[in-house]
Amino acid sequence: RTIGDRIGEAKASGNLGNTLKILGQFDEAVVCCQRHLDISQEQGDKVGEARALYNIGNVYHAKGKHLSWNMAQDPGCLSQEVKDTLQKASEYYERNLSLVKELGDRAAQGRAYGNLGNTQYLLGNFSEAIAFHKERLAIAKEFGDKAAERRAYSNLGNAHIFLGRFDISAEYYKKTLQLSRQLKDQAVEAQACYSLGNTCTLLQDYERAIEYHLKHLVIAQELGDR
């Protein structure tokens, strides 16, 4: 501010916002991220504007998750405050998405789609969540980003469960399992086995369910995860 560096001030405000978000001070975080947005727009800094929109989305997303954890509810069964907060997150992610499309930034589009999928899932809009996660999956494959691809499969599996499409969920969870093994991520492998065990139970394939739950158990024991 002293040297009149507006872009520097915008970035500093954004960094403050992100830090306050991590500290759980969501309302103060929004004020700082909004400042980042205002200055970026005033300076015609499209990249900064996109980043600010994404960051504000993240703050509302984190706030919504924080509020819903305190109430321990299933996706879709939320208080009005949580719904409004997640709806705001969604709106900022949408604005970010249209701007990064304009800028041709595919990686940023992938992040926006993933977060839109997650917010719609929490809001109980499972069909919308699936559409967003499919877009996320396509971009992850484009970039050869195996970790993002794995997350997308997992999220697609979760959303299909709530639509009662257990067979489709099982296919996505199997892909999650394959990728977690490729990535040598045992904790995620265990999680995928757990999801598959539950899905096989819903499909009344109890033999397979037992196999997956035993695999989950073995990894949990290996990791010393009580």
TrEMBL record:
This protein's record includes keyword Cell membrane: yes
Ranges for the TPR repeats: 150-183
Subcellular location, record wording: Cell membrane; Cytoplasm
GO BP annotation list: establishment of mitotic spindle orientation
Pfam families: TPR_12
Signal sequence annotation: none
Record InterPro entries: GPSM (IPR052386), TPR-like_helical_dom_sf (IPR011990), TPR_rpt (IPR019734)
PROSITE patterns xrefs: TPR
GO MF term list: G-protein alpha-subunit binding; GDP-dissociation inhibitor activity
Gene Ontology CC annotations of this record: cell cortex; plasma membrane
Subcellular location, principal: membrane
Family: Belongs to the GPSM family.
Protein name according to UniProt: GPSM1 protein
Organism this protein belongs to: Menura novaehollandiae
Gene from which this protein is expressed: Gpsm1
